[in-house]
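Design a sequence for this backbone.
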């Protein structure tokens, strides 16, 4: 059996896929639900106000938004910016345009790899005609 100390509460627990113990996972979920509902109902609150109301750290709320788990309300406008172009965003790490561009680049790279792989098949088909 693989027991580890929970980094959150310090208790020993049997290691699962999660890095914290099951009661802490439940706790974390409760906190997340609270923050998410609060932001939904009070979109005009700033990150600091939400942190105070929900008794969590500002860092935690920033993390929720960056992970794309919650959308920032109008009160948080400007708190979050795209990691690529610096434009204000409400959730995630990049703005829609940069996400599209990144996806496009990945797609293009895949396409080129596909073309390289299929190159032989294409030339064979051409000869058939
Ligand atoms: Zn714990
Ligand atoms: Zn961007």
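Sequence:
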């Amino acid at each position: 059996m693989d027991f580890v100390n929970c980094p959150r509460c310090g208790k020993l627990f049997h290691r699962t896929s999660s890095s914290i113990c099951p009661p802490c996972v439940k706790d974390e979920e409760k906190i997340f639900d609270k923050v998410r509902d609060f932001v939904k109902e009070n979109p005009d609150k700033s990150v600091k106000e939400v942190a105070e109301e929900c008794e969590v750290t500002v860092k935690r709320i920033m993390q929720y938004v960056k992970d794309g788990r919650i959308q920032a309300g109008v009160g948080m406008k400007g708190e979050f910016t795209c990691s690529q172009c610096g434009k204000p965003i409400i959730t995630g790490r990049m703005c829609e345009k940069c996400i599209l561009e990144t996806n496009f680049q990945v797609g293009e790279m895949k396409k080129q790899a596909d073309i390289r792989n299929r190159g032989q098949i294409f030339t064979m088909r051409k000869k058939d005609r």
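The pocket of zinc ion (ligand 2) is lined by residues 82, 84-85, 87, 94-95, 97-98 (CB under 6 Å).
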